[in-house]
Automatic annotation (TrEMBL):
Keywords: Cell membrane, Membrane, Transmembrane, Transmembrane helix, Transport. It is a multi-pass membrane protein. It is found in: Cell membrane. The keyword Cell membrane applies. InterPro entries: EmrB-like, MFS, MFS_dom, MFS_trans_sf. Residues 8-462 form the Major facilitator superfamily (MFS) profile domain. The chain crosses the membrane at residues 43-62, 74-93, 99-124, 136-155, 161-184, 196-213, 219-242, 263-287, 299-317, 329-351, 357-377, 389-415, 435-458. This is DHA2 family efflux MFS transporter permease subunit. Pfam families: MFS_1.
């Protein structure tokens, strides 16, 4: 891998890393933000939700715009918007200003993230180099949320909540300058026209869906709010599918789903991310509320799985994929993920971190570090140059929606189980742990389903390529 393409990869991953980190970096700072800007308790959730709605809702649109206008242009535009809105977030003087800035920040994150995987596929056509590059991107995707929670706590403690946004500005400016020079120009592969009605339908559908999912814990599954907005989201999605079947230049050509690899990989990714988001959320709460660790100690306790993901995805995944084939590596990685969740499903109330928690976290980290690069490589293997941006946007959309749904469903499951145990007379710590056990074991079941889907849909390794 030559120096210029290595630097280009670093720039692409830095942009995607900032976008993923900012999903969770605000979590620890929410009490301070509420105190300074006067948020109500219900309004405070929108500091996260406004970002997720724009991020998840616009990925598919920006992925297609990257194919039409050129992926470099869309990446640079997204990076500029993300950096400028981060500056506004850091200077926010009122609650409405912060919410608007966070929504715009999410839109910038969607633009720059949607095209990254497609640009990597174009920059690194040789299988060995592409495997290493996708491994780096997979590390960003798999560990960004954990690192965001850790860094948010440290920055807030050392300075103030304003700096969790301000830190993006110098990084964004530097990345913008480097990207302008290092990323190769990409002309759009199609005439500059797109399916505007389809774009409106899918963007509205995804935004409504993400909004509905992120509010499930607040309103409940059986509420009129969840049912009503969920029905609207499904109706919009149905309208989008009908539109794509009839449009002359569809935003998302349905022919893409004839690819067994692309379709299967997206289903597996959806299930994998749903279980992983639930794991991160639950483990932090378990360490804080049951084990009794401080916020700083909890952040440190979450470093080992991120480190394991880094070691495997950055250092070993490319060699493993080349030697054994992505499918085999993916199946082993999913097996390890399920095993790690199973180990965590047995943690006790009075846990010793090194004995009871750490082994499960390390197994999870190794499994994620193996599974994510192999899965993305398989999913992008059938994408043509003209559709690489769209396939990249589809992958990122699947990840965002899967993460939101997984977190929403598993949070409700945990709360329901905990309330049931409390009603039966269980002590508070025991009741909380019962809810967390339910999340871990359900997540394990979801990963097992992902393993079965991967076995049935993803192809055997290309032995000729693996031998290179």
């Amino acid at each position: 891998m030559d120096r210029s393409r290595l630097l280009a990869l670093i720039v692409l991953c830095a942009g995607a890393f900032m976008a993923i980190v900012d999903e969770t970096i605000v979590a620890v700072s929410l009490p301070a933000i509420q105190r300074d800007l006067g948020f109500t308790q219900s309004g405070l959730a929108w500091v996260t939700t406004s970002y997720l709605i724009a991020f998840g809702g616009l990925l598919l649109l920006f992925g297609r715009l990257g194919d039409i206008l050129g992926r470099k242009r869309v990446f640079l535009a997204g990076l500029m918007v993300f950096t400028a809105s981060s500056a506004l977030c850091s200077l926010a003087w009122s609650a409405p200003v912060l919410l608007v800035a966070r929504f715009v920040q999410g839109a910038g994150a969607a633009a720059l993230t949607a095209v990254v995987l497609g640009m990597i596929a174009t920059l690194f056509p040789e299988p060995g180099e592409r495997a290493k590059a996708i491994g780096a991107f997979s590390f960003v995707q798999a560990s960004g949320g954990t690192i965001g929670s850790l860094s948010g706590g440290l920055i807030t403690q050392a300075a103030s909540w304003h700096w969790i946004f301000a830190v993006n500005v110098p990084i964004g400016v530097a990345a913008l300058g480097l990207a302008t020079r290092l990323l190769p120009p990409e002309l759009g592969t199609r005439a500059a026209r797109t399916d505007v009605p389809g774009a409106v339908l899918v963007t509205a559908a995804l935004m409504t869906l993400v909004y509905t999912i992120t509010n499930i814990e607040r309103y409940g599954w059986a509420s009129a709010h969840t049912g009503g907005f969920g029905a609207v989201a499904l109706a919009l999605l149905a309208g989008f599918v009908v539109r794509q079947a009839r449009a002359r230049t569809p935003l998302l050509p349905l022919r893409l789903f004839r690819s067994r690899m692309l379709s299967g990989a997206n289903v597996v990714l959806f299930l994998l991310v749903a279980s992983m988001f639930g794991f991160m959320f639950t483990t932090v709460l378990y360490l804080r509320q049951v084990v009794g660790l401080s916020p700083q100690a909890t952040g440190i306790a979450m470093v080992p799985p991120a480190a394991a993901i880094a070691v495997v995805s950055l250092g070993l995944s490319a060699k493993l994929n080349t030697r054994f084939g992505e499918r085999r590596v993916l199946l082993v990685g999913l097996t390890l993920l399920a095993s790690g969740l199973g180990l965590l499903g047995r943690v006790p109330v009075h846990a010793v971190y090194q004995v009871d928690v750490l082994p499960g976290l390390l197994v999870l980290g190794v499994g994620a570090g193996m599974a994510m690069p192999a899965l993305m490589a398989q999913g992008m293997s059938d994408a043509t140059p003209r559709d690489a941006g769209l396939a990249s946007g589809l992958f990122n959309t699947t990840q965002q929606v899967g993460g939101a749904l997984g977190l929403g469903v598993l949070a409700v499951l945990s709360a329901t189980r905990t309330e049931s145990l409390r009603a039966a007379g269980a002590e508070p710590a025991v009741a909380l742990l019962g809810g967390y056990h339910a999340v871990y074991l359900t997540g394990m079941g979801v990963v097992v389903v992902a393993l079965l889907v991967a076995s049935a849909t993803l192809r055997l390794p290309n032995l000729a390529r693996s031998a290179k």
